[in-house]
Design goal:
- With about 240 residues, this protein is α+β, with helices and mostly antiparallel strands.
- It has one domain (about 1-230).
- The protein has helices spanning about 25-30, 105-115, 170-175, 180-185; strands spanning about 1-5, 10-15, 35-40, 50-55, 55-60, 65-70, 80-85, 90-95, 120-125, 130-140, 145-160, 160-170, 190, 210-215, 215-220.
- It has a nine-stranded antiparallel β-sheet, sandwiched between helices.
- A hairpin with a 3-residue loop joins β4 and β5 (about 55-60).
């Protein structure tokens, strides 16, 4: 299976993982050196059912990782993908972006302003994908107790697209660069299409064959893999 940036000097061949060894210097120059990928940079293997085609996004299923596709409130539009483990999750959304980039800078400022409006806390730090936000907002438990909802929000800009990942649960409190959710986020392939789209317009997600409705969500069958917030509004 071939994968990797096609303009890189080497292409990795490994059927079990899409992890790419990159030097710290390379990662600093190119935050996408290890993914997420544009569809022009990644050859999706036809014989690997673990790769689930959702139209605008292609994600990889793994053992221990549930794939959910929630509907946006008030609409029937599918605009997000949730990768869920026993104690954590990451919500992934893709949007059209300007050719010149810079959308993540705008979105970070907007998220920070919204968190402050909700009397929460937000800190910007330098993460593996570049600048990211660590967020805590007031919340209530199901039994009405006051609590704090933590999240970690990352943004990645590709060719005319922007991918936002919101890590929740343990993944927000204890980030793991080699964890299953981080790998799941990095292994996303974005298929924006060539149509003209205004910046911030969500890239359409479509249901895969065999998807099973589960309440207000759609759960995709990812069993073929053999490997072992205030931010919920659109940007």
């Amino acid at each position: 299976m071939k994968f990797g940036r096609r303009n890189r000097d080497e292409v990795v061949d490994d059927a079990s993982t899409t992890d790419v060894d990159a030097t710290d210097a390379e990662a600093a120059v190119d935050p996408r050196a290890d993914g997420p990928w544009d569809h022009t940079e990644f050859e999706i293997p036809a014989d690997q059912p673990a790769f689930i085609d959702l139209g605008g996004l292609v994600v990889r299923g793994r053992v221990g990782l549930d794939l959910q596709i929630p509907k946006d409130e008030g609409t029937d539009r599918l605009a997000a993908v949730l990768l869920v483990t026993e104690d954590a999750a990451v919500e992934i959304r893709a949007f059209a972006a300007p050719r010149t980039g810079g959308l993540w800078d705008e979105v970070r400022a907007e998220i920070a302003e919204e968190v402050q409006r909700l009397e929460g806390q937000v800190v910007e730090v330098d993460g593996p994908h570049g600048p990211e936000l660590q967020v805590q907002v007031p919340a209530r438990t199901p039994d009405g107790q006051e609590a704090v909802q933590p999240s970690r929000i990352v943004g990645v800009e590709g060719p005319r697209w922007f991918l936002r990942g919101t890590f929740m649960g343990r993944a927000a409190l204890e980030p793991a660069t080699d964890g299953v959710l981080e790998r799941g986020f990095r292994e996303v392939v974005v298929r924006r299409g060539n149509d003209a789209m205004p910046p911030r317009e969500p890239i359409e997600i479509t249901l895969p064959a065999g998807a099973v409705p589960a309440g207000e969500q759609v759960v995709a069958d990812d069993s073929a893999e053999s490997d072992q917030d205030p931010t919920e509004r659109d940007v």
